[in-house]
Amino acid sequence: MRLLSDIAGKVNAVRARQIAFFALLCGTILTPLSAEAATRAMRPTDVTMVMELDSPIRPGEYAWDESGAPVGGGVRVVVDLSAQKLYVYRGGVEIGRTFILYGVDDRPTPLGTFPILQKDADHRSSTYGDAPMPYTLRLTWDGVSIHGSDIDPQYGTHGCIGVPVAFAKLLFAAAHLGDSVLVTRDWMPAIYAPTHLAALESNAGDIATGS
């Protein structure tokens, strides 16, 4: 794990506010958000620790490590469509990361901030031929959810966010109804872009190793 000191605060605060505002706007249009749910939406300045991985996450892979996070409590999820990654945080500490599939063409995955509305470990699609969608976390009542899937980057979804089934099971267990999911683009590139990660690893003065 890597502990972020002042780096997160230096990640373009103006851009972070613009993303949060746009996410809240889109979320209000697509699915009603309570003031409490909007407040819980993840912001770059909320992140205090990220996972240190030996190599970038590839299709079908995931990382999960709760050792540095507070025990219990809800999670906050960030889906970065540009990077095709999903990040899970508890108490500001990243505990999960994976490669995703998302909606393309005429059924894009909507941007915005969404509360988890429903959990269904054995969900099957009523629209797409009874297709299994294990460990579903419903984000909208018109069919957008996070669920387990075979992850082939040559394919897209009909708006849902597909993650490896094993990862979906872990996320399903960790998430609570009402936990927020932010769907955005270019999430914290100064932290998560591979070139920046390499630079951070060579500069021990900027970040300290978490225990």
From TrEMBL:
The GO terms describing molecular function are: peptidoglycan L,D-transpeptidase activity; transferase activity
Question: What Gene Ontology terms for biological process does this UniProt record contain?
Answer: cell wall organization; peptidoglycan-protein cross-linking; regulation of cell shape
| InterPro entries, per the entry | LD-transpeptidase (IPR050979), LD_TPept_cat_dom (IPR005490), Transpep_catalytic_dom (IPR038063)
Q: Which residues form the L,D-TPase catalytic domain?
A: 75-184
Q: In which pathway does it act?
A: Cell wall biogenesis; peptidoglycan biosynthesis
Q: Quick check: keyword Mitochondrion in the entry?
A: no
- GO cellular-component term (any): extracellular region
Q: Which SUPFAM superfamilies match?
A: L,D-transpeptidase catalytic domain-like (SSF141523)
Q: Where is the active site?
A: H147 (proton donor/acceptor), C160 (nucleophile)
Q: Which UniProt keywords apply?
A: Cell shape, Cell wall biogenesis/degradation, Lipoprotein, Peptidoglycan synthesis, Transferase
Q: Which family does it belong to?
A: Belongs to the YkuD family.
* Matches recorded under NCBIfam families: PRK06132.1-2 (NF004785)
Would you tell me the protein name for this molecule? Lipoprotein-anchoring transpeptidase ErfK/SrfK
Q: Which organism is it from?
A: Stakelama pacifica
